């Protein structure tokens, strides 16, 4: 009955229920677990959401579309959808994860949602997972405002999170000038992508924003 409740919430009835069980099985519970389905679901999620954005915002450039996609597929967004589905109550977790609150942990829920999407694809095909995602993302897409700009640090963070990459590092390189008119030089580093840029500003935060903006330009 619990599986039927989740299927109704997803809008997809599984012909192969073993796929759904695998998608809901955390590695702490045993094998087979949902890690391979999570990998598949992550790729599908990025592809389908990119298609939604490409169709909906024909006037937006690639960099802006990438930022919007990162915003929609970041862990917080997936966690919110998983909570709407009450996904945590369906998860199969080991005793340690159960005791430590794994059923409500954002990372576990986000990963499980991606695994469920992978299972939907294997069970029903690309058109079916697209339909499921269109329904799940309807509220977020309705509220999405592409003209609402994020500050460069937040935008860079969302892009990296959307790609499941580590967050940027900010290194203070120097402080110059008199106490009442100091100038800060900060380097923003993304080591995994071998990207770095420096920024100046009248405060450390301003310098970090400047450096983050330059790294974003390299990513666009």
Summed up:
By secondary structure, the chain is mainly alpha-helical. It folds into two domains: 2-143, Orthogonal Bundle (Ribonuclease iii, N-terminal Endonuclease Domain, Chain A); 152-219, Double Stranded RNA Binding Domain (2-Layer Sandwich).
Percent in helix: 55-70%
**Broad shape:** elongated
Would you count the extended β strands for me? 3
Secondary-structure class: mainly alpha
The average pLDDT is 91
> What is the CA–CA distance across the termini?
47 Å
Second rung of CATH, namely the architecture of the largest domain: Orthogonal Bundle
Number of domains: 2
Instruction: Report on the biggest sheet.
Output: 3 strands, antiparallel
Specify the CATH homologous superfamily of the largest domain: Ribonuclease III domain
Work out the radius of gyration. Answer: 20 Å
- Work out the helix count: 10
What is the topology, as strand order, of the major beta sheet?
1-2-3
Any low-confidence stretches, pLDDT <50, length ≥5?
A: none
């Amino acid at each position: 009955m619990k599986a039927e409740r989740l299927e109704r919430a997803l809008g997809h009835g599984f012909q192969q229920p073993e796929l759904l069980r695998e998608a809901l099985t955390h590695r702490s519970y045993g094998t087979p677990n949902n890690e391979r389905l999570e990998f598949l679901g992550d790729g599908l999620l990025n592809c389908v959401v990119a298609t939604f954005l490409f169709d909906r915002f024909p006037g937006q450039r690639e960099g802006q579309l990438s930022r919007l996609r990162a915003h929609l597929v970041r862990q917080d967004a997936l966690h919110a959808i998983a909570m709407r589905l009450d996904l945590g109550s369906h998860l199969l977790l080991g005793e340690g994860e159960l005791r430590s609150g794994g059923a409500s942990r954002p990372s576990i829920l986000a990963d499980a949602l991606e695994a469920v999407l992978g299972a939907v694809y294997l069970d029903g095909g690309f058109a079916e997972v697209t339909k499921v995602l269109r329904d799940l993302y309807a509220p977020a897409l309705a509220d999405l405002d592409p003209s609402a700009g994020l500050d460069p640090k937040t935008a860079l963070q969302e892009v990296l999170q959307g790609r499941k990459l580590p967050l940027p590092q900010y290194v203070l390189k120097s402080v110059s000038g008199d106490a009442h008119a100091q100038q800060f030089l900060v380097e923003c580093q993304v080591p995994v992508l071998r990207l770095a840029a420096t920024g100046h500003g009248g405060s450390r935060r301003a310098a970090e924003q400047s450096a983050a903006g330059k790294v974003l330009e390299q990513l666009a």
